[in-house]
Specification:
Elements (H helix, E strand, L loop, with lengths): L8 H20 L6 E5 L12 H10 L3 E2 H5 L7 E2 L7 E2 L2 E5 L1 H5 L1 E6 L11 E5 L25 H15 L6 H4 L9 H26 L14 H4 L2 H16 L9
Helix pairs in contact: 1-9, 5-7
Length: 255
């Protein structure tokens, strides 16, 4: 990843746009096991760093894991300043989907090697543990044009959803598990079933209140809270991504 440097406001906007492009690339892949490695120029340890909070919020709201933060010691560093002798920072990170994070065997900073001012981070992946991707329930769920319904209809849909959701049994033990590499098959099946039942509740409510839309060719595109603040950047990133993909995904010659 090539990130904008510096702490000016325009650089923050560029950084937000780059994060949006990464999310588009992840969404376009036909795998759920994704790890993105590189110089994010985001210091998560220093709260005053302009990019650190943006990366953390982006990861949290898109269900991503900052694997480098989870797996490396808190005193790690990957950057040595050439301008300020002796000053170090942790700017290189690995951001993963949950499945991508789960196949990481180990990760470490190789302090014996440096490329100019950066120190490489090394990781090994357990490709034998890649999950089998099953058909998503969302792939066959109808997509609804919410804009054509008034507040009365939306309120009715909300109430009907609450009724169906209130009937679900919540798998508290599985949801409260904090083991990032949990191998409990019971937890996995309970969470999967819980997720599918939640989806079914919303579909039932929409069928009861709004009717059925038979257009099943498009996936539901959820834009979490992060993109509410960068909608224009999201649209721009989408156009750039489509153009890049149609050009057979050329690589940056400067990388």
């Amino acid at each position: 990843m090539k990130s904008a440097s510096g702490g000016q406001e325009d650089h923050k906007e560029i950084f937000q746009g780059q994060l949006e492009e990464l999310k588009l690339i992840i969404d376009d892949l036909d795998t759920t096991s994704v790890t993105i490695f590189g110089d994010f120029n985001a210091n998560l340890v220093n709260p005053s760093h302009p990019h650190g909070p943006l990366l953390r919020r982006f990861s949290d709201e898109n269900g991503l894991v900052i694997s480098s933060e989870q797996l490396l010691p808190v005193d790690s560093f990957t950057y040595i300043s050439e301008m300020r002798l002796g000053e170090t920072s942790w700017l290189d990170h690995c951001v993963s989907t949950q499945d991508g994070h789960n196949i990481i065997n180990k990760m470490y900073v190789n302090y014996n090697i440096s490329f100019r001012d950066h120190i490489p981070v090394v990781m090994s992946l357990g490709l034998d543990r890649l999950p089998i991707v099953e058909e998503e329930f969302n792939d066959v769920a109808p997509k609804i044009n919410w804009e054509k319904y008034d507040t009365v209809k939306l309120r009715e849909y909300s109430l009907m959803s609450d009724i169906y959701l209130s009937r679900l049994t919540i798998p508290n033990e599985a949801l409260e598990c904090r083991d990032m590499k949990c191998e409990n098959e019971g937890h996995k099946s309970q969470i999967k079933m819980f997720y599918e039942n939640i989806c079914k509740c919303f579909v039932k409510a929409s069928n009861d209140v709004l009717g059925v839309n038979n257009n099943k060719n498009k996936k539901f595109d959820c834009k979490p809270g992060f993109t509410e603040y960068v909608k224009d950047l999201h649209d721009t990133a989408r156009k750039r991504f489509v153009a890049w993909r149609e050009a057979n995904k050329p690589r940056d010659q400067n990388d």
